Structures
1.
Amino acid sequence: MRVLIVLVAATVILTTAGIAWASQTITATTDVNGHARPATAEIDGPSNVRCTSAAGQAGTGQKPSCSIAAPGYSGIVEIGKVIATDGGGTVTLTSNGNPPLRCTAEITP
C-alpha cells in the first residue's frame, strides 16, 4: 500500500512539474497536385526534433527533406538530423521536394 501511495505521489509531482516523458511522431504530406498538408504538435518546453524520413517523386529537382518551424528554429532538416528547440510552443513540419511527398519527424523532450 505504501509503495502505491509513493508512486501516485511521484506521478502527481512530475505531472504538475510539466515533465513530458513520451515522444511524439508527426507526418506531413504534399499531394500530387502540390497541396501541402503540414503537421503540428505542441511542446511544453525544450525538445529535440529529428527528421526520420522524407520521400518524394523520383527525378530531377529538390531532394526530399523536412522543413521544421519550432521555437528557436526554422529551416530545412535532412533525414536523420536533429534540431533543438529553445522552449515550449508549436512545432510545424512540412515536406520539401517533388510531389507527392511524405515526411516524418520525431519529437522527444
2.
Amino acid sequence: MDRLLEWLGKLPTTQARVAITLVLCMGTGIKVLAAKDWDPALDWLGFLAAMSGLDAAQFYAKRITHTADETSRRKAERMARLALR
C-alpha cells in the first residue's frame, strides 16, 4: 500500500485529475436533473466513485510527502501565537 501511495504521490497530475472528476460528476448531476427520465448506469456511478477515491488518495499521498523544514515550522508557530493574542 505504501508503494501505491508513493507512486500516486509522485504523479504530477493531481489538479487535472480532480478537475476532470468534478466536471464529470457535475455533468452527470446536471444530466440527471435536466432529463428526468434518465437514470445513470451503476457502472458509470461506480466509475465516478472509483475516480473520486483515486483522486482523494492521490491528493492525500502528495500532502503526506511534504515536510516543512524547522525554520518554516518555527515561523508558523510564532505566527499562530501572535494570532492568538
3.
Amino acid sequence: MALLVSETVTTREGITTGEIYVRIEPKLCICGSKLDVEYSHYVSKTAYTNGASTCLKNEKIRVDYDRATEGSDILSIAHTKLTDYLTTSQGTDSDGNPLPPNYSPENVSNVDLV
C-alpha cells in the first residue's frame, strides 16, 4: 500500500521534487493491541519498483489497534492511521504553539491499495 504526497520536498541528496511515493508496511506487535507502521519515501513509484534507495529517512510509528472494533485488515488500518498522523499536528513547540503537520491533507492521496 502506498501514499502519494504532492508537495515540494528536498531529499537527503539535495534533490527537490514535487511528489514523494510513500510505501507502507504494517506489523502487528506481539501484544496484539498495537501496530508498528513502517514507511519509506521514494522519489517515485518507478524508483521503488526498480529497487532504488529511499530518498528520505525511513520512519516508523506505533499506533493503538483493536481488532474487535477495527477489523483484521491491518494494511488498510495502518494506511488510515499513517495518513492521519502525517496530516495532523504532532505536538507543540517550546512556546506551546501547535507544530504544523508533515503534509497538508489535500496533498496526500491513496495509491496502490494492494
